[in-house]
Amino acid sequence: MIEWGLSLALGIGLSAAAGFRIFVPLLVMSAAVRGGFVAPAAGFEWLGSGEALLIFAVATVVEIMAYYLPWVDNALDAIMTPAAVVAGTVATASVITDMDPWMRWTLAVIAGGGVAGMVQTGTAVLRGMTTMATGGLGNFLVSTGELLGAIVTSLLAVLFPLLAVIAVVLLLFVISTRLFARNRSSLKTNL
Fold it and tell me: Which range marks the domain in which residue 134 is found?
């Protein structure tokens, strides 16, 4: 039971990181599997291959660079939201071991995909607000914060999964509180 809980915590942490940047947690996970720090679920051993590590490294660099291009970052958010849900689902499913596949994938979709989608939605809203306030010129600050969030959350998930889950819960609380406050003030001004 403890191993199952740690696997789920690892998956949730990696999924939250996928909400910031899709390929950073996949790169960290690939390196962790390759280094023997993380044991993947059956069928996901390929994550530790040299090819997977190289592909995730190249994809990470391209993704990071693209988010520093004004207006391209906003367009990417439209594409990346569903992609983050998929990445979060796969990241979670790939680390949950010793569980019936149907249950593993159900849990991965709900916990992993859900967390990734919530984080990505929060960052997309923040980027939209920054774009409106600065004409897109301030978005590099959001991009830098997202990149740091993806790196720190990914490493935290691999090294200290339970601490990562606590950080994710706090992050989701902040995101939901801010979105709720924004929607509430929006309703007041429209009434």
Answer: 2-190
Q: How many CA atoms lie within 13 A of 125 on its CB side?
A: 15
- How far is it, in rounded angstroms, from Cα 120 to Cα 102? 26
> Smallest Cα–Cα separation from 24: which of 116, 131, 121?
116
If one counts the domains in the chain, the total is: 1
Which tens digit of pLDDT belongs to each residue from 132-149?
888 878 888 989 999 999
Give this prediction's pTM.
0.88
Q: How many CA atoms lie within 13 A of 157 on its CB side?
A: 34
Dmax over Cα atoms in the chain, in whole Å? Answer: 57
Cα 42 from Cα 75, distance rounded (Å): 36
Q: Which amino acid is at 178?
A: R
Question: By the 8 A CB rule, do 35 and 43 touch?
Answer: no
